[in-house]
Write a structure and sequence with these properties.
Blueprint: H1 2-41, H2 45-59, E1 61-79, E2 82-99, E3 108-111, E4 116-120, E5 125-131, E6 137-141, H3 143-148, H4 151-171, H5 174-198, E7 204-208, H6 216-220, H7 224-228
Parallel strand pairs: 4-7
Antiparallel strand pairs: 1-2, 2-5, 2-6, 3-4
Transmembrane segments: 12-32
InterPro entries: DUF4230
Protein name: DUF4230 domain-containing protein
C-alpha cells in the first residue's frame, strides 16, 4: 500500500513538472513569435510622422520661395495754382513663409486604408517687403512749388507708403501665391515622405493649406493620437 502511494505521488509530481515545462516552452514560442511578428510588421507610420513633425517644429519657420517686385507709384499735390508731382520706382523682395511652430498633432491625419498621410499647414505668410534702396528711382515735376513749400516731403512720404503697399499687393497675386504654395507643399511632402520611405513604408503624403479643401479622405482619416489610443 505504501509503495502504491509513493508511486502515485511520484506520478503526480512528474505530471506537474511536465505541465510546467510545456507551459514554459509554449510561452517561449509565443514570445518569439510575437517578437518576429513585430519585426516583420515594421515601424509604425504614425510614430515616424510624429518624429518628422517634431523635427519641423524645431525649425520654427520655413521659407521656400521669394520673389522680386517693382512698384511704380505717383503722387501729386496742387497749391497756389501750381502742381507738383513725383513718381517713385521702388524694387523690393518679398518672402513667403510658414510658421512651423503652429503645427500640432491634430494637423496630421493617417488613413491606414489608403496609406495616406494628410497634413494641414498653417496659413502662408507674406514677409516684407525688403526694399532695394539702391534701386530706387524718382522723377518729379513742379520743382518751384517743392522748393518753396513742404510739398516734396509729403509727396515722398505718400510714395513710400504707396510703394510698399503696391509691392505687397503684387506679392499676394494669384500666380505668386500659387507658386509659393507649391514650393512649400513640395518641401513639406519631402520632409515626411523621405523618413517614411527610409523606414520601408509605402505611404502617400498630401499637404493642404487652410484655404484649400482637402478630399473626403481627410474627414475619414484617423488622427495620430487616436491611432496611438487604438480607437477611431
Amino acid at each position: 500500500m505504501e509503495d502504491s502511494r509513493v508511486k502515485r505521488w511520484g506520478c503526480l509530481k512528474f505530471g506537474a513538472l511536465l505541465a510546467a515545462l510545456v507551459l514554459a516552452i509554449g510561452a517561449g514560442f509565443w514570445f518569439l513569435g510575437d517578437t518576429v511578428k513585430s519585426q516583420f510588421r515594421g515601424p509604425d507610420p504614425v510614430t515616424v510622422a510624429q518624429a518628422s513633425l517634431q523635427g519641423l517644429r524645431e525649425q520654427n519657420r520655413l521659407s521656400t520661395f521669394a520673389a522680386r517686385y517693382v512698384a511704380v507709384v505717383t503722387s501729386k499735390q496742387s497749391r497756389l495754382g501750381m502742381t507738383a508731382e513725383k513718381t517713385l520706382i521702388m524694387p523690393g523682395m518679398v518672402r513667403y513663409e510658414v510658421d512651423l511652430a503652429k503645427l500640432q498633432q491634430k494637423s496630421l491625419s493617417w488613413d491606414a486604408a489608403t496609406n495616406r498621410l494628410t497634413i494641414l499647414l498653417p496659413p502662408l505668410e507674406v514677409i516684407g517687403p525688403d526694399v532695394d534702396l539702391d534701386g530706387i528711382r524718382e522723377y518729379s515735376q513742379g520743382g518751384l512749388l517743392m522748393r518753396f513749400t513742404d510739398v516734396e516731403k509729403q509727396l515722398d512720404a505718400a510714395n513710400r507708403k504707396s510703394g510698399q503697399q503696391e509691392l505687397i499687393r503684387q506679392a499676394r497675386g494669384p500666380t505668386p501665391m500659387k507658386l509659393a504654395k507649391e514650393a512649400t507643399r513640395r518641401a513639406i511632402e519631402r520632409s515626411f515622405a523621405m523618413p517614411l520611405k527610409a523606414a520601408g513604408l509605402d505611404a502617400r503624403v498630401a499637404v493642404f493649406f487652410p484655404d484649400e479643401r482637402p478630399t473626403e479622405d481627410w474627414d475619414r482619416s484617423r488622427r495620430p493620437e487616436d491611432v496611438l489610443a487604438n480607437k477611431w
